[in-house]
Amino acid sequence: MAVAAYLCWVASTAIGGAIGAAIQDAAPAITQALHFALPALFLALSLENLNRDTAWPLLAGAASALGAIFVSNIVGALFAAIAASVAVSRWCHQRPAP
């Protein structure tokens, strides 16, 4: 079962890559919209899971990414967001000393 699911995933990824390359050559305007789709999906999933436990780490990650993008590249902003989110999450969920 797991092998079949993995092969289906690999095949659909290959098909999606081929279709994406064809769309990119045929319609450059659609390509610009597709570049926005992944961040929009991430934002929608993040807001769907937003609650009291996830609000501060999400805000810390977003703020640090926005700050880091001005002094670094996108990879630096990504690492800054991850580091800030993990640090704030650990700080928010630390256990009191016994």
Helical residue percent band: over 70%
Note poorly predicted spans: none
Question: What structural class results from the helix and strand content?
Answer: mainly alpha
- Nearest-integer average pLDDT: 85
Rg, Cα atoms, Å: 19 Å
Per DSSP E runs of 2 or more residues, the count of β-strands stands at: 0
Number of discrete helical segments: 4
Which sequence of SSEs, written as H and E, runs from N to C?
HHHH
Shape: extended
Biggest sheet character: none
The span between the termini is 46 Å
* Strand-residue proportion: under 5%
Describe this structure in words.
The structure is a single chain. The protein is an all-alpha fold. It has a domain at 49-98. The protein has four helices and no strands. It has helices at 2-26, 28-48, 55-71, 74-92. Helix 3 (55-71) runs antiparallel to helix 4 (74-92). The model has no long low-confidence stretch (mean pLDDT 85).
Pick out its properties:
single chain, about 100 residues, mainly alpha, 4 helices, extended
Question: What is the compact description of this entry?
Answer:
The chain is mostly helical. It has 4 helices and no strands.
Present the secondary structure layout.
Elements: H1 2-26, H2 28-48, H3 55-71, H4 74-92
